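Long-time lurker. I teach an intro course on protein structure, and each term I like to show students one example going from raw sequence to a predicted 3D structure in token notation. This year I'd like something fresh instead of my usual example. Would anyone be willing to generate the tokens for the chain below so I can use it in lecture? Attribution to the forum is fine with me.
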Amino acid sequence: MTEKVQPLISVIVPVYNVEKYIKRCVESIMRQTFTDGIECILINDASPDKSIQIIENLIEEYKGNIQFRILSHTKNKGVVAARQTGINEASGKYLSFLDSDDYIEPDMLHDFYKEIERSKADIIIADYITDTEKGSTYHRQQARQLPKEALSDILTDKLPAFIWNKLYKRELFLNKDFHIPENINMGEDLIMNVIAFYHARKIAYINKAYIHYRRENEYSFCNTIDNNKLESQKSSVDVLEGFFSDKDDKMDFYVPFMEAKNRIKTAILVMGDNKLRKKYQKIFPEANKYIFNYDVRSFKQKLLLYLNSFSPLLFRYYMKFSSVKNSIFKSA
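-- Reply from a regular --
Happy to contribute to a lecture. Here you go:
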């Protein structure tokens, strides 16, 4: 009897309402040059459109070596639950996450696997490309090998907390610290990366872009953000507070964590409606003294945070008569 070989890489793809983009996403996985030992787990998060039908047709016609599986939720649970289902069912030594409206270059899995085996790293980071209606932009990432340095960069947003331009050892998500509430629908990537990078021993970087991150409107953040997502970002800070609370080295990340709080507070104060703004105007007072510590945010964002800390009433008056909602993030 032949012993079952553990897959090398599990690619996890949540699927919900993406019939316009899912064909390109799945085909980019099928076109990988490295296919032996690859499984792709697609999680149907109760998608109401034809996304799953499109996937099933593609799999039926596929003649390659990648093992495709479709798992289904009976009701929509959100991206956190979908990814967790994928993690629970994955059997690969390494995990790759892909959003179903994005796509990847054909040599990504080959290069990721080759580098993580060569370097003996726990996490691989690669560059990425943003595709908008105006064109494409290349994004170079921070090249850090020490996980603590990379974790600080994630908290300060010097290293964006995306999970889809990385390859992770699966064991990083199997420890007791890894728990993300299903109700969080914004800020989940930050939590996942903080936990993974904290437990990693070595990071490796590939100076090449493989992921095409789709943004139809380059300012879509400003157009799709809502109070629920902003509340979710506040909840992500609460989760991280709990994560760091029992860590002996938590003070190593204190100042970078203050920057994360200021960044999320900025989003709430600028993008939230008046009710939400009032509710959270005084959150994270401990972070006020660190407003000007980092250069990641724009000077305009820093000034608004300072104005809010100096005089909340004056800040509310300014926001009432100012149209900064879009401009502040365009200049960030």
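Some talking points for your students: The longest strand covers residues 203-214. The two ends are 59 Å apart (CA to CA).
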